Amino acid sequence: NILDFGVSYFQAKQEADRVLIASELRRKSLHNLLEEVQFAYWKAVGAQQLEQEISAVLNGAQEAMVLAKTIEKENLRSPIVSLRYQLDLMNAVRQLEKVRGELVLAQTDLAVLLNLDPKIKFRLVDTSGSGLPDAPVDLSILEMEEMALLQRPELRAEHYQTRIDAMETRKAILHAFPGLSFN
């Protein structure tokens, strides 16, 4: 039956487009994962670099707190000024402890994304100053924008879905014809 052949032909084209949609969704998922890993990496590198500085500032704040309590006990300043200063120091210490906690989580997040045991301690290397030259791009801004839009997985998947819908219309038109067969 020729109509069955035509319908199965359009059905096969639709299935091929569905496979292409699935591959575009996979590509988008991989891109999102790559972005997450890059973000977690740089956050962990930053945390690693700030770790010693935050510890030094926290030690300085604790020493200042001891000094402020000593000044308060010896009545060298007004008690209100001394207490206000201690409160400001405690708020600063609390904020620094919060930042330190977030920075500790940065390395754990990276370990989870890399499928490593979060308990494993590792050091990261900052590769931003590796001296690798930037690759020259011989495209204009307009050409780069056009290329970026053509490569967007969402737009490509939508294009494939439009083709599937068009094939569905053609299948419906074929079903409207009476049966035609050759012997």
Following the backbone from N to C, one meets helices and strands in this order, namely HHHH
Structural class: mainly alpha
Query: What fraction of the residues are assigned to beta strands by DSSP?
Result: under 5%
Mean residue pLDDT? 85
Tell me what you see in this structure.
This protein has 183 residues and is an all-alpha fold. The chain contains 4 helices and no strands. The chain has helices at 2-73, 79-113, 141-150, 153-176. Helix 1 runs antiparallel to helix 2. The longest helix is centred in the first third of the chain and has 72 residues, at 2-73. The model has no long low-confidence stretch (mean pLDDT 85).
Gist?
This protein is mostly helical and about 180 residues long. The protein has helices spanning about 1-75, 80-115, 140-150, 155-175.
